[in-house]
């Protein structure tokens, strides 16, 4: 969480994590995030980049994420995130360890998401 918290702070988001770089944390809202360029080490999880990219269209200046460090795991996950953003109308540019998302509205729609594999001890559908 530390790299993500640092990236959000660099984008102007107010976060109180007690200086731990971990959950729990409190995110303070001011109505909008300006956005712009941010650099982080996402070698621990591609979800750090994906989470930022999914937020990018709502930022005033959009978002430019640059990864610095060992390779980001799960390139297919990042490609899926980019494809989903584009399918929703976002303008996304990609490069080596660099992703840019332009600001702007996204369009809604319906998606069919197939369930993942069911494990031997689980039941489908889930019983709540």
Description:
This protein has helices at residues 2-10, 47-55, 75-87, and strands at residues 14-16, 26-28, 36-40, 63-67, 92-95, 98-101. It is of the alpha+beta class and 128 residues long. It has a four-stranded mixed sheet with strand order 3-4-6-5, covered by helices on one side. Strands 1-2 form a two-stranded antiparallel ribbon. Strand 5 and strand 6 (98-101) form a beta hairpin. Helix 2 (47-55) runs parallel beside helix 3. It is globular and about 40 Å long. The mean pLDDT is 89.
Topology at a glance:
Elements lengths: L1 H9 L3 E3 L9 E3 L7 E5 L6 H9 L7 E5 L7 H13 L4 E4 L2 E4 L27
Parallel strand pairs: 3-4
Antiparallel strand pairs: 1-2, 4-6, 5-6
Helix pairs in contact: 2-3
Shape: globular
Nearest-integer average pLDDT = 89
Strand order of the largest sheet: 3-4-6-5
Please give the largest β-sheet.
Answer: 4 strands, mixed
Specify the helix fraction band.
Answer: 10-25%
| Low-pLDDT runs | none
Structural class: alpha+beta
The tally of helices reads 3
What share of residues are in beta strands?
A: 15-25%
Estimated radius of gyration: 16 Å
N-to-C span: 30 Å
Q: What's the total number of strands?
A: 6
Oligomer: single chain
Order of helices and strands: HEEEHEHEE
Brief synopsis:
The protein is an alpha+beta fold and 128 residues long.
